[in-house]
Amino acid sequence: MNIVILNVLIVVCSIPLVTLGASLTAGFYAARKDIMQQGHLTRNFLAAFRSNFRKSTVAWLVLALIGAFVFPFSILLRISALIPFQIVFVVVWLTAFIWVWPLLSCYDNTVSKTLWNALIVGFGKLQYTLMLIAMPIVFCLVVYLSLRWFTSGLFLLALCGVGLIVYLQVKPAVHVLRGLSESGPQAR
């Protein structure tokens, strides 16, 4: 049930797309606290949304602007000499996107340092990064297959949505972050 509540919170708070970063950061924070059985999911989410709003929004806007530049050119420019650079750029962007929200939800740092740390953690713990990237891809694949073969399961997937992905990503992310510092993710 908490997965559904978290999904609704993330989706509703992301309706103005500019708040997507704050919603994801709050989602990671609330899911981590829920797994550790600390506090109430909704209260934790709203408190984290408020406290991380500015930094998370700036991080999201930076990633969105870079992504808005990189992805269209990656699709439109099919120059064979540029393909390796495009792949590297997309991998770097995905790595930063996957790790910035758990880092913002756990540590108080500047946006630039958080983005830099996201790349350091992402490439330093590549197996975890690949796992975290695979989770939403597998989820999208399941949604696609649901549409084709068993549409009745689509309703359940829509209810769980991003909340399920965040819950699945929290444990491996916390495991990695706990190993990086003595205080671990509980620092916040």
Account of the 3D structure:
The protein has seven helices and no strands. The two termini are 25 Å apart. It is globular and about 50 Å long. The chain has one domain (2-187). It is mainly α and 188 residues long. Helix 1 runs antiparallel to helix 2 (20-35), helix 4 (83-106) crosses helix 5 and helix 6 runs antiparallel to helix 7.
Question: Which short descriptors sum up this protein?
Answer:
membrane; transmembrane; 7 helices; 188 residues; YesL family protein; single chain; 81% helix; transmembrane helix; DUF624; mainly alpha
What's the count of strands?
Answer: 0
Distance between the termini: 25 Å
Report low-confidence residues grouped into runs of 5 or more.
Answer: none
Number of helices: 7
Shape category:
globular
Content-based structural category: mainly alpha
Portion in helices:
over 70%
Rg computed from alpha carbons, rounded to a whole number of angstroms: 17 Å
In sequence order, what are the helices and strands, one letter per element?
Answer: HHHHHHH
- DSSP strand content: under 5%
Rounded mean pLDDT is: 88
How many discrete structural domains?
1
The main pleated sheet reads as:
none
Keywords: Membrane, Transmembrane, Transmembrane helix
Protein name: YesL family protein
Organism: Bifidobacterium fermentum
Pfam families: DUF624
Give a short overview:
The chain is an all-alpha fold and 188 residues long. Helix content is 81%, strand content 0%.
